[in-house]
Amino acid sequence: MKKKIQVLIVDDHYLLRIGLANSLNVESDIACIAEARTGAEAIDLYRKHMPDIVLMDLRLPDMNGIDATAKLRSEFPNATVIMLSTFDGEEDIFRSLQAGARSYVPKDISRDELLQIIRNAHNGKHTLPAQIAGRLAQRMQRRELTEREHEVLRLVVEGQTNKQIAVSLQITEVTVKLHVSSILTKLGARDRTQASTLAIQRGIVHLMN
Fold first, then answer.
1. Out of 36, 39, 109, 163, which could bridge 68 as a Cys pair, Cβ 3.0 to 4.6 Å?
2. According to DSSP H, which parts of 5-110 are helical?
């Protein structure tokens, strides 16, 4: 008898985990063998069960799914992770694939498409839903923000003035203005307000709940 594709589901929402598990377990070739609520728990369960596929939520209580994926693949380079998220910001998609995820899937994806992506991933294929591939293509066309620009942008989103940012980062106000100008250019934004909106929409900056 052919071995089923063993799946570890990682999500902090109990009902979603149960729904996903039940949906997978009715398939003749797929089985949910474990469920995790946090990134740390996911890594522990991976060590214990060595599943074929990990369905990883982007937002978790202890760490985000991108960091959890990176940690998992640093220990298990062959781990196959599919990121599952309600968010489709291009930066989230880009960083998830950078961390080693095989695919990035919105939670409103059809059941049949999710099953196909799981099977494709198990067979070593990278499959992205059309809307996710489009977002990724947009991200690949944009220039990368530097680490310092990321820090400045996060503080801009928080509503800090150039003077406040200068104090927070211990740099001059002139330097902050230069960073903001570069950020606007790279994001294609006309002002700080639009830059903040784009940063949130694209998943470059996440608002704290």
1. 39
2. 14-25, 39-49, 65-75, 90-99
Contact 79, 72 (CB under 8 A): yes
Q: Supply angle C-alpha 164, 166, 172, rounded to 5.
A: 145
Q: Report the distance separating Cα 91 and Cα 96, nearest Å.
A: 8
Domains of the chain: 5-140 (3.40.50.2300), 147-201 (1.10.10.10)
Contacts of 114 (CB under 8 A, 6+ apart): 105
Confidence label for 140 from pLDDT (cuts 50, 70 and 90): low
- In this structure, how many other beta carbons lie within 10 angstroms of the beta carbon of residue 11? 26
Chain-wide mean pLDDT for the chain? Answer: 90
Of the listed ranges 3-17, 30-44, 76-90, the one predicted with least confidence: 76-90
